[in-house]
Amino acid sequence: MTPRTESSGNPEASTLSLEEAVERIDVGAQPDPDDMDMTSPEALSGTASVDLSQVKWPSNDRNAPDYAYVADQPDPGRFLLTPDAMEMLLKLNRYAPDRSNQTIAFALRGATLHSGHEIEGVDEVELQSVRPDHRNLRCVIGYYFTGTHKLSVFSGSTVPCRRAIWGFVNGLDPANMLPTGLHSLYVWRHKRLRPALRMGRSSVDPETGAQAAVLRTTNDMIVGTQDPFDLSVPLDNVHCSFFLNENSFLGASFSSWGCLTVRGEKTPGQQWKKFQKTLEDLGARTRVDMVLTTGKDIALIDAGQGDPASLEERMGALRRGSQGSEVKRLQEKIGFEGGA
After folding, report:
1. Which residues of the chain have pLDDT under 50?
2. Among 302, 196, 296, which Cα is nearest to 240's?
3. Which of 170, 197, 300, 331 is most buried, with most CB under 10 Å away?
């Protein structure tokens, strides 16, 4: 359950500069608006052939994979994200993120800022737990700076847009949803965007994608607990949303086939530009571990920090990126031979 280790399967990668990488075709990366014809009759057709309203978030938390284990717990709604809450989340999930650059990225699936689209360098931030809908920016993405115990938070999304799910179900480009967990990303590129956070193999080889088990739906327009996990190389990077308002072709205010998106245009602008500033300061090839969780998880942690024993009982979990003796015991029990 640990992220991929620092090893390279591409001898050329160690000498490849970011500028050289951007000039190459990004094999396997998901499409961005520059790759799509949004003006064709098919693209702009009515609901008779393309009914994006069918794409929905599960109506019951028990059917939403990231929420199922806390479905029976009331959602506190409004909550405070603090460094203490982040540290408790890491402890409950047995995460040991890389802290060498004093920066941990995080993404809260199903959370919005109380007001505006950004807040930087604060001790705490007020958020609202919501549910994604594949249409609007109903997630937040940001940084936890472990050296200063400060937080920066930006509006974004952690789910594929409606067009992506509709297209995949109808035999077009692959779409997926990255499950919650601890994921190792690298300051590199997404197609022609630079810098971006890339789900790469290692700091030596950030260009080659890393494996991840992602959720895909082919039987309906809802990504739920009935859908299979696909062990693949999805290149679920972090890039800009490309749009600030809903795009009629995508049926959403962001372009994503599985990548995480920060609000902003490609230029760069808005929150994406500010998100990139931290990546520029860290430098190309820097590893940035990212914690992907739900707003409800942090809301429950915030509400229960006065009773850590109860939190452990209700919310202790093993996910991608978990480490330690419990992980080893689980692997032995299921006969896993891939290492800790």
Report:
1. 2-8, 41, 44-48, 339-340
2. 196
3. 197
Q: Which residues contact 107 (CB under 8 A, 6 or more apart)?
A: 139, 140, 141, 142, 156, 158, 238, 260, 290, 291, 292, 293
Residue 80 token pair: 């405070």
Interacting residues of 157 by C-beta distance below 8 A, sequence separation 6+: 132, 136, 137, 138, 139, 241, 252, 254, 256, 260, 261
Please tell me the distance from the alpha carbon of residue 328 to that of residue 105, in angstroms, as a whole number: 26
Q: Which strands make up the sheet holding 111-113, listed edge to edge?
A: 78-81, 125-129, 111-113
pTM over 0.85: yes
Supply the pLDDT for residue 39: 65
4 to each of 182, 268, 320, how far by Cα in Å? 11, 30, 11
Q: Provide the 3-class DSSP secondary structure of residue 21.
A: helix
Instruction: Classify residue 104 by burial, with Cβ atoms within 10 Å: 0-12, 13-18, 19+.
Output: buried
**C-beta separation of 204 from 8 below 8 A:** yes
Nearest-CA neighbor of 6 among 100, 95, 91?
100
Q: What is the distance between the alpha carbons of residues 126 and 55, in angstroms, rounded to a whole number? A: 29
Please tell me the distance from the alpha carbon of residue 91 to that of residue 310, in angstroms, as a whole number: 14
What are the tokens at 58? 């599960």
pLDDT of residue 1: 54
Q: Is the dihedral angle over the CA atoms 95, 332, 211, 228 positive or is it negative?
A: negative
